[in-house]
Model the fold of this input.
Amino acid sequence: PPVVGGTETILLGEDDLFVRQWIITVLAQAGYRVIEACNGEELVALFQQNPTVDMVLLDVVMPKKNGREAMDAMKKIHPAVKSLFMSGYTADIIHHKGILDHSVNFISKPLTQEALLRKVREVLDQKAPPSH
Done:
């Protein structure tokens, strides 16, 4: 099936300028609104200013706060926020080192346009977990 875009707002946390600009271009061309951050602290600050973002797309390894630390801080603000982690390390290595658990959404770099758009749509379309 064709890759479907959307109109949702995505908060992007990526420290590599080239990768960040490429992701912004891909997502914007698919109709998404993108808010960008270059490190974990900036990501959390932007999330506090924009708590209605539909999803956070973030690198696992970033300066000032890693992806998990940043996500933990954002979940305190909005526990049901959807997230997609990305990394140049494989999922096996990240889970093995205890950086992320197996329940998180994850995509490996290098990214292809199609894989990124499919995974973003998949995460956005997931039902929110029941709140306790």
About this structure: The longest strand covers residues 82-87. Strands lie at 9-13, 33-37, 55-59, 82-87, 106-108. The two ends are 36 Å apart (CA to CA). The mean pLDDT is 88.
